[in-house]
Amino acid sequence: MVVHAMVAIYILARHRIRSVALLLVVSLVIRVGLVFWDLNLSHIVSLPNSGLDSEMFFNYARAVAQDPSLLSVDIRGGAFSKLFGTLFWVTGPLRIFGQYTNVLFGMSLVLVVGLITDLLPLDREQTVKVMAVVALLPNSLILSSIFLRESVVGFLVASSAYFFARWFQSGRGTFLIWTAVMVLVGATFHAAVIAVGIGYVCVSIVYQPTRRCFGVSLQGLAYLAIAAAMVLAVVAKNPDVFLGKFDGYGSEEILFGDVNRRSGGSQYLSGLTISSYPELLLFGPLRAVYFLGAPMPWDIRGLVDAATFLSDSVLYLGAPFLFLRRRKLLGRNERLLGYALMISIVISSIVFGAGVSNAGTAARHRFKLAGLFFALIALSKTSNSDPAAPSLKQVSSSLRKPAPLSRSTATLRISERGVAVQSLEVTSLRKSRR
């Protein structure tokens, strides 16, 4: 593990932007340091979210390693415990190995966001600022250092955002298929990730990437039909894997009982009771806002809550606000992509918010969607004085191709060359006479 970490540091340090390279190295070192703290010094100060759930995931992973037949049955640890249980079956139940692997998923999320910034017209300074937020977000550092599934799901959602952005720019159906694959794999770890895919589907129906405008096209519908057929076939063949979480909601009483359940000292909206589907839709946006912002300033109980709000909640509440505030300053393509991501963010926040009722759980679950918010922040930091003009990426790519010369330009260049040749001949003649 130490050798791998040293090699990873060497590779990260070779990033083309020196400041970003430093951020990546520092991010990896901090995460590895938090792993050692969680395993050896947690009796002094326990890391947030390290405890019951992390122990549950580890115990089930260890059980899978000891009895691989558990891979074929439903266990509480789900796909995360099965994945790490398979790794433990090969290496032995080494917890430090499992948590270091989680660190690598967290760093992979950071690198995927870096790939997204490469698609955008961001200057060096703004790229460094975006990557600083992504690499050093406190909740990200902690959640990727303990034995929880958030980093794995966050990496898959960020990857789906990357492929979706590639499809949005190029219109290639391959990228749309890869987007669906990432969402489906993410849904095996947490079923609510399907909501991210619903947002992508809504956008793919009404957006024409070849014309860079919103509107229904036959090509888009064809790609959508192919992707939908693949998704339905996979889900229908493995319903327990993707939709198992919803099997317990056999009646409205059970569903609304789960929605109204409150637990923990950081619970919010305790006075809100939902008893019908219209009320669920009506209060869905409110619960989504609380999901993104909890703990709200009026619910802060102490220093930890205040730190969580300032270092985490502000990012999730501020990213959509920042984009909407700066949308008129963005290039047309970046603005449209931002609207597309906003659709997925709104749908996902409503779905996740319906099942979360306390700030601690909200801080964990919203990190699964962090890739969408990081991409939105990166989009917001781009700029274009003329919103209808092409982005800087398009301009730079066009500069690589030499433009065809007009007839007058070609004639002018030939005449200039002729004058230069004549001048050279006269100079040579004078030298020979001397």
TrEMBL record:
Membrane-crossing residue ranges in chain numbering: 20-37, 97-120, 141-163, 175-201, 213-236, 306-324, 336-356
Region labeled Disordered — which residues? 383-407
Q: Does the keyword DNA-binding apply?
A: no
Superkingdom classification of source: Bacteria
Respond yes or no to whether keyword Lipoprotein is given for this record.
no
What does the UniProt keyword field contain? Membrane, Transmembrane, Transmembrane helix
Q: What is this protein called?
A: Glycosyltransferase RgtA/B/C/D-like domain-containing protein
